[in-house]
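S.,

Sequence below, as promised.
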Amino acid sequence: MDHPNEGIDYEGAWDAYAQNWQSLHPELEYIGDEWAGQGAGAACSLAEYEQLIETQFIAPYIRPDHVVLEIGIGGGKTSALLLNYAQRLICADISQKMLDATQARLGQERVEYYKLNGISLDSLPEQAIDVCFCYDTMVHLEPRDIFNYLRQIPRLLKGDRLCVFHHTNVLSEFGWQKFLKELEINLRGKRHGSAFSVMTNEIMEKFLRELNYRVLLKDTTSVPRDCVWICQAPPMER
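The prediction came back faster than expected:
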């Protein structure tokens, strides 16, 4: 079955965001510094939010010998944190401008960059990655797109096969308010690529169970609007 040419333009939306970012946030140093956790009820400042991400979702799981894949790098905010812990980091994004911004921030030492097409993860190395980290990215992906990535990730992993997945929960109070705020601009089947998805914890749990991920932690309190899962991906069938 051919994939339709029309759909949610994630790539165009995030290329445009990166293109216009400096004029919108001239006071900030890096793309992503504006995502400081306030809207998610998680933090009151960028420093506080970065500390939360590091102490809750990076430090307990990333070891110095790990190769980490980050899907959806958004300018490199969490990439910079991950690089402090991992042996090597693979940055993957649908937006070339976001990849360029992250490369300008992190350089090329211990970092590789991969452009995605929004459908396939075939460009990424198989069975070469210890941890898949996807934070502040699935909040923008429709459920079908999340499921599509989840079913491809296991063949990329080896060793510990750990995954950190973060998505929005429209049934939380913060999530519901975000849904209402974006309602009028996403009607009649239209959907901007940077809008938040209509996602729930129950849908994600179904996805993970059907794909044989082992759930190690389901965190609905650290980021009250959202949900963060620590999982072990199933081994590749031989």
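Residues 93 and 202 are 26 Å apart (CA to CA).

Coffee later?
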